[in-house]
Model the fold of this input.
Amino acid sequence: MRYVHSAVHASAPSYVKHPKLPFATGTYQPLIANNKTFSSADFKARHRAALYTHKASLCATPVRKSIYTPTVSVSSPQVFEDASAIKQPQNNQTPRSRKAIQEVRQITAATSTTPVTEGRGLTRVGRTTVIAAKSAAHTIRNTATKVCNAWHTFTSLKSVQFIIKFFQRTHALWKKRMRFSYAFYAIVFTLLTSAEVIFLQWGVYSEPTYDKGDEVDQTTKILNSVAGQVTKFVSQIWLEQKYQFLLNFIGIGLIYLALVFVLNRFWIATVIFGAAMTAYGVANSIKMGLRNEPILPSDLSFVSNGNGGNLLSFIPKDQQALVNGAITVLIWFSCACLLLFVLDGRRRFIHCSWKHPSSNAKNIIGTSSRALAAILSVVLLVSYTWNLNIPGAWSYTLATNLGYKPVPWNTYEDAKSNGPATTFQSLVRVKAMDKPSGYSKKTMEEIAARYTKKANKINTSRANILTDSTVILILSESFSDPLRVPGISFDIDPMPNIRTLKDVTTSGLMLSPGYGGGTANIEYQSLTGMNLANFNDQLISPYQQLVPSQKNVYTFNQIWNDACQAQCSYAFHPYLKNFYLRDSNYKKFGFKYFRTIDSKPALKYQNHIDAGYVSDASAYQNVIDQLNQSDGESQFIQLVTMQNHLPYGDYYTNNEFKEADTSTGLDENEEVQIDTYAKGISYTDQATATFLDQLNMIEQPITVIFYGDHLPGIYASAAKYKENQLTLHESDYFIWSNSSSSSAGSKLSPEESDYSSSNFFMASAAEHMDAKVTPFLALLTEVHQSVPAVGRFASTDADWGTGSTSYLDSSGQLIKKKNLSSEAKHLLEDYRLVQYDQTAGKGYLSENWFNRVP
Done:
């Protein structure tokens, strides 16, 4: 420790800085006539604990002397630092002081082994970093200086100065531009929402056509025209006290309101709302024309799965003008909204400040109101839509008070009477089935036992095993006999081969719930044995509304999977894998793989006929390849074709059906579509005959179930008459076995096969093959014998069923539900319980081997 013997400040500055000294273990004592002793508390450590002693003014004689004396040996690192400078002990040191100094020297020597090399390395790195930083800073400064100089040079130009001064003068006026009032926003909101409601309703209607001999007065023509029907839809508020227009206004107005409050930009929300509703209206109009069905919530899966671009390929040529016109209107509408956005001095619909939400009362109130309005508008929209389909809920009660009468089994009529927006929102929330009365584990055990006995009884008279044969289930897109449609005739038969085949094998007409569309629904029925008639009317598409939420889904292909103790079922579709969510659904069904044009690997054969889709001949060839790879193993193959899918433009070359068309009362567009469709049916007929010939050459038993899913929506003239409705819901089917099968040449009786629905196909195939059945197939066999065909579609008379379900007898006549036999009613009730258990219930039947051969 360095000792200061005397601090004589005769000619020194007013302040002298001494080395850092600790005060914790000593005292600072004056050496002159001042006997007062100071403690360390009398000195404040400032500037790194340096000691400053105060001197008086300069004088010849010292005024004050002081000395610091430690009381004990010091161990502070700072003391060591000072002590290391001591080389010789002073003569006047006490022994006690010498001992302390020696201890300090020993400790200092021990701590002097710091690695010098590492310190030097760090120093070099630090110096390099500092140099690089300085160089970069210098470069940035030079660049910034050059940019500033260039900018000053540019802005000093006279022309630029003129522009700057002009904007400086006008900026004050621009900042004072008018803020549009909320009343103006309300007017725009009302006009745009009303216009969209009218546009959506306009897309539902179509212009009526009249036969040449019909005498219709001008007033009737005006009232029946699209404009007349739209006018009636609006004016019925005053004429008939029906408020469907107001109901649709509320439905889409809530969407508009939610956009405004969430975005907090009125004009941006207006552009988004107008564009979305216009696009929806155009798509709705096109679908109504093609399928007699509005846009449904389940259709959105096409877009969400990245298939929006492919949907454009379905737009018919006669609707292209509508699409182009809508695009033009949207461009002008967007430009107008952009201009109003620029001119409007109100940037936010509700004042708020997210950066300083609590800086003042205005920001607190505005930000809170903005957040609350956004949340409440979304909650209100969701609540309205979620409850619109639930009797007793607030939005359902509101809608019924405004004249809402749901017709969910016929979405076409529902959209016409209630408006497409209300129809869409009412189908957002769907419950698959209501719980049947008496449903319990005990009840299902009794049903399992009852139909196990039925299966055993059936199986005693049947010789074959179902899985000993390969079964090919073919859904032929839109296949049907056009000559059965009233008013359609040709000089050439478009399907001579299949017509001949139907005479010698099990065949008939299938009651289809769809017209112009609904492929996946009929496909679902044929694969599962379930019928849409048992579901609630609001469930429109099981593939999109039911299957994705099911953990376990039973399908008939699983019978073959069980037999081979693996996945022995395969699926093919010459189009996109995600349509109707087939890719994910087929995995649940248990198919080993699903081949499409966009799968990996893709379908091997993808040939087209002219400008159409992948031909049926190519689709069949993929199945033949799969059979050749099976090494004789029985399997289940699912094929959904695409060749005859809409639209039906004039894309076939050498179409002989143009000249052979002898139909009457058709307009030009309808005639072109029917002629094109007939040519496609002719190609399917030829390809199917060739395919069956190839199957005859394979030495393993094969049975084919072939059916058309629905009629194409091109028969506008026939669809005008209610008496043709049933005919437009009947397509062709047949069940055929190759020459290697023991059931070759089999044909069920007309009572058993003339009329059917797709959910009965597997039971009929088992009967055709003389094959043993599962308890579930036994139930389907019993139901089919009592009620040959069941279909959910809008019948000509609501008395024919529940208003949504139609029943046919063995001669194809509609049966009223109340006229069914008691046995048939009992079977239908069992069927309903089974379907509920396997789709929405607890799955008690899976514990009772209900889907396996006893």
